[in-house]
Specification:
The protein has 228 residues and is of the alpha/beta class. It has one domain (4-227): 3-Layer(aba) Sandwich (Rossmann fold), CATH 3.40.50. 25% of the residues lie in helices and 25% in strands. The chain has five helices and eleven strands. The protein has helices at 16-25, 69-78, 88-95, 152-160, 209-227, and strands spanning 4-9, 29-34, 45-48, 83-86, 102-104, 112-120, 136-143, 147-149, 164-168, 179-183, 189-192. Helix 2 (69-78) links the parallel strand 3 (45-48) and strand 4 (83-86). The model has no long low-confidence stretch (mean pLDDT 96).
Length: 228
Amino acid sequence: MAPRIGVVVFPGTNCEHDVVAAVEAAGGTGALVWHRDADLGGVDALVLPGGFAHGDYLRPGALARFSPVMEAVRAFARAGGPVVGICNGFQVLTEAGLLPGALQKNGRLRFLCEPARLVVASTASVLTAGVSTGTELVIPINHFSGNYTCDAETLRRLQDEDRIVLRYAENPNGSVDAIAGIANETGNVVGLMPHPERASSALLGSDDGLVLLRSLVAAAAARAAAAA
């Protein structure tokens, strides 16, 4: 039985159906979870997808962290559940304190919508465990506030603890250390700005996103098997 991947939907989210289709192409079963839900419905992994949660008022992700579902997301993450935030979902995870640092406006204040070459920098996460370090992937970005920033101590910890999971081959937005994605201390919570769901078919120009999503589905399947 395919593991259930919950996809959290906030008002303003616009990538939820793309993520459901992509995780199903990767071998999972997608299930939408509304932001007011306090119960995750027995999912085996969670994705916070891209969009403009609550209209990105104040700043991206700042209001979404107060949605009722986020208490369940925090509890799920604390229990070791796989959680991935994509683009706006990454912003929500930083605002909620589930990942360190913040996403600020891109360098030169440019909105970016283009393919990005990524390099897998660590296998110590639910999103990259099945991928060799150094693997190059082409996955699109689509953001205005995707410039990852953190203080020097946080950056040192991310580097020393092998928590930078993806870097840009050519830094498009000014992110510190060319960071495209990071993980928490245990590797079960990951945030990334590129959109793997938009690279889930060769017909879309690249299916490199499935490389990452298959790792997530595998982590969800392992969690489901452990709970059986």
